[in-house]
């Protein structure tokens, strides 16, 4: 009997990838008992799986032959000024996958890394995804299911073939079918050619093409794409030097904007207001944030260190995290950066500027 545990998110659960893989096995390896289980809540990162503990518990409880690990589709993701980018793998993906691979290995299972695909609008991001998964597979001695490489090949060879759902992120039925082909060949080291077409209700010519690509990509040794250097990560916001600050200099009302929350949801730029009075070596008061017609207010204690002012606000409604604000005074305005880490372990970075209200 072969038992496979999938740990991931909706890229695993949409269209039931584990179930489709089991159908492939049923027809291509008849007589082999093959059981799958998935822990795949929407949006989960491998870091969040570790924090919640359910996946780790199942790894140790089950008699698994394989544990399939799928990171959040943007390597844990990070946001800069409300735009989503692939996360820095060294900070998010690598530490989590190392821990889960160690747990799987200790439990007697073979880890298999499920390389995901780039979003429809950003094909070039596949380079970083491929590099990150391949590096971890090599470092940890794990097997690799290069699903993203297969998607990239299909997109280049047949750009009219729709692998994506309407959101340009999740898989359409053809995308899941291609992923199952790669997964089958990666697990069993044999082509998936000849699997029955009715598995996914796809046209026969399309299913045969996806089987061919999935088999060839999974069984290529080495993957030629692994030699391509990854694209650089975007530059994070940073502070510029400013004027020396004293509490009295911050007194009064300030108004401006904050770019931190998702632009696609109409949440950036948000209106940011500060009302401050000096108190000893600090300035205290309130911050007010307005977005999408709604406002929230929180007390703030502004700390001063040379030319830098800093304070924090707990966002319990959206990020469910502590947001750190820092700024310097330049040209009469407080110009700053904001940062937070959400419960999934994804970092958020933004910029903000406020100016004194007119008297």
CATH superfamily of the largest domain: SGNH hydrolase
Which shape, going by the Cα principal axes? Answer: elongated
Q: Could you tell me the strand content as a percent range?
A: 25-35%
The third-level CATH topology of the largest domain is Rossmann fold
The total beta strand count reads 15
Helix and strand pattern: EHHEHHEEEHEHEHHHEEEEEEEE
Secondary-structure content class: alpha/beta
Task: Give the CATH class of the largest domain.
Answer: Alpha Beta
CATH architecture of the largest domain: 3-Layer(aba) Sandwich
Q: How is the biggest beta sheet arranged?
A: 8 strands, antiparallel, barrel
Provide the low-confidence segments as ranges. Answer: none
Organism: Stigmatella aurantiaca
Protein name: SGNH/GDSL hydrolase family protein
GO molecular function, one term: hydrolase activity, acting on ester bonds
Question: What do these coordinates show?
Answer:
The protein is α/β, with parallel strands linked by helices and 359 residues long. It has two domains: 2-227, SGNH hydrolase (Rossmann fold), CATH 3.40.50.1110; 247-356, Lipocalin (Beta Barrel), CATH 2.40.128.20. It is built from nine helices and 15 strands. β14 and β15 (347-356) form a beta hairpin. This is SGNH/GDSL hydrolase family protein. GO terms for molecular function: hydrolase activity, acting on ester bonds.
List the helices and strands and how they pair.
Layout lengths: L1 E6 L2 H4 L3 H12 L5 E6 L6 H7 L1 H8 L4 E4 L8 E3 L2 E3 L7 H14 L3 E5 L11 H15 L2 E3 L1 H11 L15 H16 L15 H16 L32 E8 L10 E10 L2 E10 L2 E12 L2 E8 L5 E10 L2 E9 L5 E10 L3
Helix pairs in contact: 2-8, 7-8, 7-9, 8-9
